[in-house]
Amino acid sequence: MDQPLTSIPRLVLQRAASHADETILRTKDRGIWKTITWALLDAKIREIGTALLTADITRGDVVAILSEPRPEAVYADLAILGCGAASVAIDPDDDLDRVCHLLSSSGSRLAFVENEEQLDKVLTIRDRCRALSRIVVFDMKGLRDFADSRSASLNRFVETGGSADWTAAVKAIEADQPAVIQFPRADGSGLGRPLSHGDLMHMISAARSRLPIQPHDERLAVLPLADITERVWGLYLALETRCVSNYPERPDTAIENLQELQPTILGADAAVWDRLYALATARAKAATPAQRLVYDWALRAGRLGGPKARLADLFVLHAVRREFGLNKLRLAYVGGVSVGPAALDWARSLGIAIQRVDEPAVGPGQLDERYRALMQNTYA
Question: At CB < 8 A and 24+ separation, what contacts does 18-24 make?
């Protein structure tokens, strides 16, 4: 009989046992989508997790991840949580001072970095981060001749894994243990705020009541792990609901991949919707006068609803949604900064209602009060 799902790593253990051959992640590599099953996800997490345990990373420790969206960042994050340590994700666009602040104030003992660019960033400020003793690199492109006694490729790191009992480590996790350290964006010098495993599971449970995500839904990961919307309502919620997470080859191909994938779920931020709206506006301006008239009419009709909206959808709006990868979309949500009025109006005209995940559900109760407090904490 399955044990209660008290943590994300425990959830992965159970899903790997009951849905081993089912696809849960995809990644685009050299133009080809490659599938990752629950069994493979579990194996990757175990490899990294065992190496972390061998490196004496355990409860009370903090490990950082500095990467664009990619499966290796997922493996690392779940491995950190599984060995009992806390994970702090750092935005790859953050400047040196912020990266230094997050690494030093969190007391990160080890940092996973994506590539040469992020490695250089951490090496530059490593001496200012007293606890940091090791760096692990996902992508060694351009680093063939690189040698540093305190840095290693991910492949070399997992080779150090010993015989630690990974399943036992995961099952020993307690609900009140820190799992994620979230730093406020508004205050660059602010202290990290811990979210426990219990907090994460509570947030996911509350989110499920408002986001009808189903097994085999498809989503495109367009935000870095450092964004709490991606981490909790993207990755963790997708794992809980068995929604497939798709990772683009590079951040600059996200729109192209969106068009190709036509996902059913899109959890993003305001900037993504502003970018889609700006792209649609630019293409409309480049169209012929007649095409612009038809497009503007269709948007007005879609906004007003009724028979004209159905006609506009049949002849225009359906094609617009398909052009921007939104044709199969049945659920869109954001957290943090609100979508701008123009982009929000454009989405509504296309028949897309963008929900907010950082607002408590209407109605009294302890669940909503806790959710409200967690939202205030994570989106500060």
Answer: 19/242, 22/242, 23/244, 24/238, 24/239, 24/242, 24/244, 24/245
